[in-house]
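Can you give me the bound-state structure? Components:
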Amino acid sequence: MSSYVWISHLVTQGVYGAYTLGVSGNVPFCIMKKDKPCPDVLCALLGTRHPIVQAGMVWCTGWELAAEVGKAGALGTLGAGSMYPEELKAEIQRLKAAWDGPFAVNVPLLYPDVEAHMETIAAAGVPVVFTSAGSPKKWTGFLKEAGATVIHVVSSAAFARKAEDAGVDAVVAEGFEAGGHNGREETTTMCLVPEVVDAVSIPVIAAGGLHDARSMLAALALGATGVQMGSRFVMTQENPAHAAFKQRIADAVAGETRLMLKDVTPVRLLRGPEGSFFDQVHHAEEEGADAQTLRELLGRGRAKRGMREGDLMEGELEIGQVSALLDDLPRAGQLVDQLVQEFKAFNTRQMAKGFFWKGLE
Amino acid sequence: MSSYVWISHLVTQGVYGAYTLGVSGNVPFCIMKKDKPCPDVLCALLGTRHPIVQAGMVWCTGWELAAEVGKAGALGTLGAGSMYPEELKAEIQRLKAAWDGPFAVNVPLLYPDVEAHMETIAAAGVPVVFTSAGSPKKWTGFLKEAGATVIHVVSSAAFARKAEDAGVDAVVAEGFEAGGHNGREETTTMCLVPEVVDAVSIPVIAAGGLHDARSMLAALALGATGVQMGSRFVMTQENPAHAAFKQRIADAVAGETRLMLKDVTPVRLLRGPEGSFFDQVHHAEEEGADAQTLRELLGRGRAKRGMREGDLMEGELEIGQVSALLDDLPRAGQLVDQLVQEFKAFNTRQMAKGFFWKGLE
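Here's the bound-state model for the whole set.
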């Protein structure tokens, strides 16, 4: 390492500013390239202390969770996808009464109440809006005029470019291992994040499989400027998910989640008891059921039934692969603190001894 | 960072030795845990300069590739799974004539010629053997008596523990995104590596989705002590894969590989032209075809036909998701050099500025 000479040169670029870092010594010139935005850029965009987002999951968010996450310096999010317009209004009001810092609302753009939600968001001056499952073209302008930071969730580099073209401020690159609704490409976080980072100039937030300081550092190594965690925040005390669902997650082992209903809308579900909805879908898909049959089997209201009402037999249990690794139930603020402290210690420890080997010398 | 006090304490453990690193300051005590083996431990085990393994893929390895990889300081591997016993013997002879350093042979334990391959390996004194697709119990003792380092490929923490119990020296944790034959759990590299690292004390080599310095650093952040790359080494000049297959990989975009034939043996394949074998399998599976039907459709010899003979229509094209990111065809030695140099520069750059943010201070 001592053989390196570092030349730092500041280049202002767009809103963010980007560093071009020259490296001499025995490092080939070709590896010099424009650096991607760093975590501080994302923190500035979100108004948070930490580049950590609690995902806006359906049925598994609420003002208490978002307030606790916000107070700990990360970004708490309300998932509007499972709220009626009046509910979202009430949740935002309660959240603002409990916490006067930044927070976000996640709006799946294909949901029926989108227009009403957008009016609520604009009227309430929601600082950050995550959009997903639909084209970012229609609402990005409206939201930005209302003063919001707009972030779109993508499952491919092609969608990321479209989102950037639509004027969003950042994207979430969400991999195959994530819980709930998911991309058809099945691209995992390890492959998706570098591809999206290379495709766009705006900050990229990694999601899918992230739950601790190690995976957070891995996501940053891949070029992300921050992380979004969903499953990890389902397993917190303030999360309104049903206790039976949380217990099922604690008991989950590897291989018990599966991306299902690909012919309808791909969604990662956790296995329930023998003969549960999960088994029924699995069986129907093995038999080659068509989209119509699957849609009828799905019916309505299963997500609420599983995640909020704790009906493990008939409900949908949306959770990521990382459920196999989750078995504690901290308070949300404690979780954020722990992530940051472990990151700090882990990263420092690695920097002290870990990433290098003799062959590099 | 200046508020930290580091206490390093050496604890000898088994063959490797492990550091226990204490951290004080504002970091909670609970994060103190035994460090995992570092890349130097793996390099010592493999006899290489770099903790990088070229995977022993069927139909896509050969003595020229392994020799070039070895000369560049990484570990080259012959994939015995697609070789007759006499071929493996001849390949090992040629490899030894071209390169007198360490190399490996990969043996899928369920293949018919396993016994003959094992005799060849013992007689030739092959220094490192990767075993996969079967129980490591039967052959680990034999191989270790023959003086080989034995490494087993796993797709879950449960298999990793079994491999450790069987006495292997290390495991490869290979995620869902990897090409070729793959686990039924569908656990991605981001979720699998930390789970395996937590489950065993032996070194863990990460595989699946790894292709550059970023993903290599991400794998090390997750706790791996090294990386195995397959698809990346298919795209090298010395690789005996057919030029038409390589060109197809260069043209591949996200979402064009799929884990298929799950009812027979799960394998990640790349889409061929309209109406190709890939489409036939996809269609059959959509229709709910049973294992017998799929086995008949698969028939015999498709892997060779696709990857070695370049028949994109009727052959199997085994490659990882990362094919979407590969479009150059370097020499294998040049690739290893570039990985190491980029890692060095990238890691140093990140250490200089990237992973930290103001909220950590």
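A couple of observations. Chain B touches chain A through 87 residues (CB under 8 Å). Residues 243-322 of chain B form one domain.
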